[in-house]
Amino acid sequence: MTQTLELVTFRLARGTGQQFIDANAAISDWLKRQPGFVSRHLAERDDGSYVDIVFWQSHDAALAASTKMMEEMAQSEAMTMIDPMGLDMSHGTIRLSVD
Asked: What is the mean pLDDT of residues 37-62?
């Protein structure tokens, strides 16, 4: 089975970077309980925007979790801090990995 990368880019609508990172504990805990979750990496760019990279065991697992997150976590503190107008999410099949 080929892993899938989920790439989400966004800016904050409110709060500080540290408040956002702290609020992400709930999101990370939720992700760890989802079938097919592999790992998550959240980065802040030099321009203040964020990149959230999540690895999934399959494309189906990634899509299922994305749908479920909107139902279960949309009102979480971290999610309400994100500017929805600039949010971009995409998925891609991993073709090469180097550890």
From this structure: 97
